[in-house]
Amino acid sequence: MLQATPRGRLRVTDPVATYLTVGTLVVAGLAGYLAVSTPRLASLLVVAPVLLWLLAQRVFAITVLAVTLPYVADLSGGVLGVNMALSDLLMTFLVLGLVFEWVLTNRADELRALSPLKGVVGQYLAVLTVLLVAHPEFAVLVATGQRVELFVFPLLVGALVARTGRELWFLRAYIVASAVTGALWIAGVELGQKNPIGQFVANALILLLAVKPLRPWLQWLTPLLVAGLLWTQSRGAILSVGVALAVLVLAQPGSRSRLRSLALSVPVAVTAYVVFRLLPEEAQERNLTYTSGNETAGEWAIKIREQYHADAWSLIHAHPWTGVGVGKYLAGNPYEGNVTDDPHQVLLLEGATGGYLLMGSFVVLVLGALWVGWRTVRRTELGPAALALTAAIVGHGLVDVYWVRGTPVLGWLVLGMALAQRRRPGAAPEQSSVDVVRADVPAPTVQEVAQ
């Protein structure tokens, strides 16, 4: 598991053993704690080493993460205010393994790959820390931790996926899972709320348009993905595809490449028109409704959103600098049926929970990430996809919920992949699931990264 370097430092030669060590320590602690109060649950931990061994196979863990991203059912039951899907648990497991590896090896390849983002990410984390001081409550601490998990963890895991050379494997698995999700939605099997589901399907379509090695699947999966997207009736997800297409065209290096990107969108547009004409009349009406009113369900939904926004502005004006605390948003009138814990507009949520300070910091985070991506990874294999997905998901968040299980994850994941790809001298070959620390690529020590 460990091997001494010529300088006397230890390095991990078998990450499987590393993960098993971490997992065994965690399982032993849980079993000891639960054996007294919940012996049945403690006995189930007997099978945990097998599960941990499977998860320690990085290709297996990465594949399961990709497949489960579109399925955001909460596994925690809201205990202590925590909401965790299976993908959240997997990302947390992978990040803990990374940190353990960094400590043992004194190397931090993923941090080095993500260093161009340290300014924009660091300022947002600093603001969250200030808000924790202003609102020293356990609920705020939990909500802040979950927010960090939704964008910092994906960046790290994306860089890890790129280090193993499994980016396309991961994205193909995600596309298949999203296509299945769309097909199930059409069949009447609803695996979640329509807006996140719609965005998952939209993300798959964006990846097929943006990543050249994935385009052979475009002709086969476009009808299913477009149908699934329109069937969800998520207008924010539908608009996000338009945002992504605009970014993809702008991100191309020359006029010929831009024309090629536009040409790729033509079959998608034709398919969307045909599928739209086949939708039930009610679904057609909702997909085309973008004004408020009382006559149709689509107009009523927008009218409710307008009330959400007005309530959020009231909170912002009452708490302009530090807000009410991350995770503490609650507004609306129970007698009117419009009570909500999210105003369905990410900037208003940031302003209400963290004041103008957090609102401005989020703008810097997103625009800064797009600017860094534009300058550093636009010409990499996954760079255009990273820019398009980040812009598309944030665009959806301007008319709907952003900080929710699964929604922002893929954009940050692919951005992490693209930044890690940038550090490779050429296309990396597919590697085995047992990842050996590479000695040919210099990496900083943890102390150097901290400095």
Q: What would you say this structure looks like, in words?
A:
The protein has helices at residues 15-37, 39-44, 48-56, 58-68, 86-105, 109-113, 118-134, 138-163, 167-186, 194-210, 218-232, 235-251, 255-278, 281-288, 297-318, 346-376, 383-397, 409-421, 446-450, and strands spanning 2-4, 10-12. The protein is an all-alpha fold and 451 residues long. The chain has one domain. A two-stranded antiparallel sheet has the order 1-2. A hairpin with a 5-residue loop joins strand 1 (2-4) and strand 2. Helix 5 (86-105) packs across helix 8 (138-163), helix 10 packs antiparallel against helix 17 (383-397) and helix 12 (235-251) packs antiparallel against helix 17. The radius of gyration is 23 Å and the shape is globular. The two termini are 29 Å apart.
**Order of SSEs:** EEHHHHHHHHHHHHHHHHHHH
Mean residue pLDDT: 84
Number of strands: 2
* Domain unit count: 1
> What oligomerization state is this entry in?
single chain
Query: Major β-sheet, in short?
Result: 2 strands, antiparallel
Task: Give me the Rg, rounded.
Answer: 23 Å
Instruction: Tell me the overall shape.
Output: globular
